[in-house]
Structures are given as structure tokens and as C-alpha cells.
Amino acid sequence: MIRIWIKLAASPTHFPVTTMTLSQSLVSIACFLAVSTTMAQDKVLNIYSARHYPTDEALYSDFTKATGIKINRVDADDAGILARLKAEGAASPADVILLVDAARLWRAEIDGLFLPVKSKVLDDAIPATLRAKPADNGGTAWFGLSTRARVVVFDKLKFKKSDFDSYEKLAAPQFKGQLCIRSGSHPYNLSLFGAMTEHLGAEKTEAWLKGMVGNMARSPKGGDTDQIKGVASGECGVAVTNTYYLARMMRSSNPADKAVAEKVGVVFPNQSSWGTHVNVAGGAVARHAKNTDNAVKFLEYLASPSAQNHFANGNNEWPVAKGVSFDNPALKAITGGSFKSELIPISAVGMNQIKVQQMLDRVGFK
Ligand code: FE
10: CA distance to ligand 1 center in Å? Predict the structure, then answer.
């Protein structure tokens, strides 16, 4: 850019600086810089990401290596990203948004923060149940890019797998004082409870939530890892967690983490009915994206076999793209090979969150 500028400034036929007033010169320079910035943005992508996984770095650098598109990334939690997008409005520099839960993706979609896009590559790669419902223009507001199962872990000394082979059993009266779970209002739980509402109906789901409140070993606190530790320490008999937190502990280089993981048993609930609840981490093009082509290119890259493999091996998630094979010993050990996942549209799960929050308030689920 500097080289071009010197050439233009030195050539009166192209840029007659000497005949301009100072203000005219400044306007010309400003225009030139604006054009240069636009040109420079051709190879730029601005991402707002709530993926909190250090192993993702390679995902970004591989994309830049393959395309020459430089990535600028803002890392924040989901709520922070949504607030920032709303505050920035049309001036937002964000091109791609990465969020880690269906409830949050749905919330951002209805708040108008995404630009629905049409991509045959994404439509072919990602099952319809793991992306947003088609928008009015036929585009899709967001795409699931990886999945995680919400499973039950239990104290192997006190219980056996069949004690918790369904989510419904978490509310059974014989498990009074045993259950540890993070806040009901956390999106991971809002999505699980939203899925239960699809399967059981609102009335039975509310009774189930009430039963779980009655079984709690302690008031909800901490994240999923804290619940696993609670089981290992004996404070809780049973807990709920996303699979990657357990896989991370199993693969940890820290012996204390490994010891925790060894103490707990894991169940994929509802294998003999509708299947275990799976959530998505996903991506979307921002409503006011300036680099939309690069944004779609990046989402398509995330659905490619190499990026999908990375989700599986780096962060212990499952690929969403059809026909992608991967090799992750911890995930294999957890599932025993494979498991049946529920098939309800993940967009319906997100949609239930307001109803679920009202139920939580009524039954006193913190
Ligand atoms: Fe997480």
C-alpha cells in the first residue's frame, strides 16, 4: 500500500497534490485510504467467537494458510457477543459469529443478528435437523458445526448404569439428595429441558424438573466439570455434563483429572427410547457483515472433513458433517463405540427456552 501511495503522490498526472488546497488533499487521501481499506478487506475476516477451546487455534491458522484470508478474532462469552452485536448495530465489523449452544443461536436469530445465507456446500454437508429452519429468503440463519451429548455421570461405588438409563430417572424419589447439576438457566440445560419438552410435553417436563429439584445434593453451582468432580468427591451420587468435559479429563496430562474421570461411570440416557440429547456449537454470518463471501467460505471450511476432524480430535466433539470419520479414543471409550442421539430439530429445542425458564421459576430450579 505504501508503494502505491508514493507512486501516486509523485505523479501529478494521477494525483495533482500541488494544485489542491490542504482540505482537498486530505479528502483525497481519505478517499484513497477508504478504497485501500476496502481492497485490504478482501482478504480479511472478522470473527466474534464464544468457542472457549484453546485447541481451536489450528482451525483458524489452517484457514488462513489455505485461503490467504487473515482472521481477526474477538473472543467473548455468548452473552457478551450478543450484547456487543446489538450495541454496534450496522457499524459492527463482525463477519462471522460462533456460539456454543442451540438456545443461544436461536436467541441471536430471533434478535435479527444473523444474515441468512444460501450455500449448497453447507446444505449438503449439515443435516437439516442441526441447522436453523429456512428463513423467508430460503437462506439459513445458522449452522450446527459440531455436536456434544448431554450425559449422566454417576458414582460407580454407589450406583449402576441401569439406575440412570433415562433422563426421567434423575427425578425418581429414591435418588433424593444425590443430584448435582449446574444452573437450570444455563443454556446447556435450557436446551436439554427444551428437548425434554419436545419429547414429554410441557406438563410432564415440569413435573420432572420439580422431581430433580427434590433430588438435589446441593443448590446448582459451577460448570459441568464441577459436577463431575462433585461425583468423584462423593458429594453427589449423580450429575449431568456435556461429553467433552469428561473426555477432556480422561485425556488430561494432569493425574488428578484422570483420577476424577476414573471414579465416575457414564450413561447415554434414553437409548431404548428417543435417544440422548445432543446440542450443537454453530456458526452464522453476521447481519451487518462486510466480508460476506469470506464469511460463507469460512463456514464452508468449518464443515469440511479436515475442520470436522479437528472438532472431534481437538475438543472432543462429534462432527456434524455427513460421512466424516474420526479417531478419538476418549470418545470411543465413553460411548463404547456409538450411541443413539435424539432426532428432533435442534431449532425447536432453542425455541422452547422461554417456556422452560418459566417452568424453572415455578418449580424453584435455580
Ligand atoms: Fe462448554
Answer: 56
